[in-house]
Amino acid sequence: MQIAKSWRRQPANLRLEGTRCGDCGRLSFPAALRCSACGSTRAQEFRFCGRGEVLAVTVVYEAPRDFAEHVPYPAAIVRLEEGIDLPAMLTDIDPADAHPGLQVTMCTRRIAAQGDAGPIVYAYKFAPAGEC
Amino acid sequence: MTEQPINIRVAAAGRTRSAEEWELGLVDLAVLAGGEVLDAGGQPPDAIITANALGDALGDQRNLALHAADRLGLHGVETLCVSCDEASGGSAIRQAIALLLSGFHQRVLVIGAEKTSDALPDQLEAVRATGLDAAQEASFGFSPTVAAALGMGRYLEHHGLARELFYHPARIAHAHGAKNRLGIFAWPLTVEQYLKSPVVATPLTVCDNAPLCDGAAAVMLTREPGPGVHITGSASVCARRGISAPVVDLSLPAARESARAALARAGLTAADMACFELHDSSSFLAVLSMEAVGLAPEGRALLDAQQGAFDEGGQSVLWVGGGHKSRGHAPGAGGVFQLVEAALALQGRLDVRLSKKEHALVQCLGSFGALAVTHVLTVR
Amino acid sequence: MKPDRPVGIIGYGGYVPRYRIDAAEVNRVWKAGHMPAGRSFKAVPGCDEDTATIAIQAARNAMKMARIDPALLRAVWFGTESKPYAVKPTSTIVADAIGALPRANAADWEFACKPGTEAMQAATAMVGSGMAPYAMCGGADTAQARPGDILEYNTGAGGAAFILGPAAEAIAALDASTSYVTNTPDFFRREGQPYPSHGQRFTGKPAYFHHIQNAVAELLQETGTTPADYQWAVFHQPNDQFPLKVAAELGFAKEKVAPFVLSGRIGNTYSGAALLGLARALDQAAPGDRILLASYGSGAGSDAFSFTVTSAIENIRGRGVPIEYYLNRSRPIDYAVYARYRGKLRMG
Question: In terms of CA atoms, which chain A residue is nearest residue C58?
Fold first, then answer.
């Protein structure tokens, strides 16, 4: 059971919190201890707005372990408004309606649970804008 | 600073079947392949390097090289385990080259081994996914298969191509792999079979994925001169982590630079290669690899494949042993299988017809293309 | 009851999952279509939804409307009878998601269907005493019913959140509230049991009706008002009939009540029910409207509130998400998919 691991991902998972480099301004999601562009360790908390556009999407029928309960799920690359590309599941959408170009908004959903006794992971999925 | 030429000879090679080997464990597979190399004769190795991608995550034998060395009766040697996801095989070869060029050792035995059939498919996919971004991708239901499906859809849409064109990488792999009696799927693949294949994640079907299996391949590498196949070029390059970049940009910058650097090191170009072993764990990565190493311009790989540009008898033959797709995909061992098959092909010991060119390029990718290890082989 | 400082609703939000199952479909599986009930639907949470995710979205919608700094919330109190964790608050997850931590109280409340309004009483006190600039209260549920039980026809899923603050900033000011509570075991669930037990007809007169009637009667007396003084009245809605019946018995005209009886479209959303009704009422209320809210929770009790809508309500239109949007958003599913989504299939 990995409680601390799921806990430390909460700011990213629940609030789409990452960092902006205090020196070069580069945005990272999730938070970067060290800017991969300039090497700076002066990071400022940055909350992404949650709006984005689907660049690519697939509907998954055979899932890796622990994701069978979501099948069939649309798995997408979402380009956030701030320019970062984020792999994320889509939700509140008929799989057939998922397509590149779709405007989406972040919502919080149950992603996984560590068995029947472990912590529940709540994290981001994306729904069609104005849908969730 | 001028780079030293690389002239590492492949003194011997060995390989097991690629199959579901219910009666063999991970160490057994390594011992069989390594043993075949030792049986070829010559001095024993001073070092053993193993390549394996998934064993630790699957709870299998850790420190594999040590355990293989013991069972091969090799005590007193250096042992090293290399784990770089699906680039492990190429990376292990490269480490062997470094040990040899440095003068630390005279003969190094590289064994790539993978045991997948002890795990169930959904667990395997989850473990493979941890080679991607574990926190942002594996934890969110993404895996190499899901990433390949995303890439396939985007590639088809971006280049305005018909879905059926993806049959051709598989067709070529199977056409050549049908002659590899050690391969798991040693038969030709018809377009009907391809089109009827069940969907795993749209639009990717079972036939777009290389079959995971058990297998081990081994080579003895040495600085000692002699006839035969030599490694004359080597490069390992990484690019941005994450599945987004290859899916969105439809390119593999690590593969491109790794191929360029390996060829440059050998003083050769892609046109000098008789054959190419590229990373066809999925048809998407196969296609991007083809374009990255210069076999086809962006967006043209499938069309050229359809025209027969990469079938045996041509100037640039792909997947002489069937590739991961037909021969079988033992992830951490793949890079060594590629080297063994390309070496055999250059020596005319495979049934697949090549041109008279004397060189081959082998490339394996880790973490969905973020790491690319390329070697150039030359037969003398 | 009234706090020392005037308090009111600053913002509110609701959420209902998009999946629906027809009661006729439940009837088909369990009674082979014998004597089907009238057409009615209940909302079903998707496989990635639970009480926490519903509460989070309701809370986010409330924050969108209220436009306050989440750091000023001193309480985020959600009530539910379908907690994702038996021990570990849902409210901390919601508070974390909206950025209200670490300075907010965030326990979960439980009182069958009325913990949200119980939390509203406490949030009123929190703000009205000057302890907090703002406090959030809400209710959300993904209630379960034993397969084939009469409750399975309408145990729905949904939730709503309300932010209370100074009446001067409010879109609806609190006039007064009452609570009427007894120790009545009309409906309950023992520890470890997957489904609740209930007293069937006992949940009617001695339970729902008795407590609402008393809470509302006391409220009318305390405020010196009669049903005629209220433009709208929202009652807890376990089904379509009870709220209309209790309204008639109390003397509230049907047209003041019916628009906010949502159970025929989304089922009984338990801790979310009365609050979703109130949200729906506020979506269409005009300045000066007086609104009655009377919840009911088995165990048992009723909280009654009187609100008067202010002119500030015109400023918030278009800021939140109208409840009608969620009511209209509907994807029908059959019993098999419903059983899968509700975790009623034995997986191992």
Answer: A132
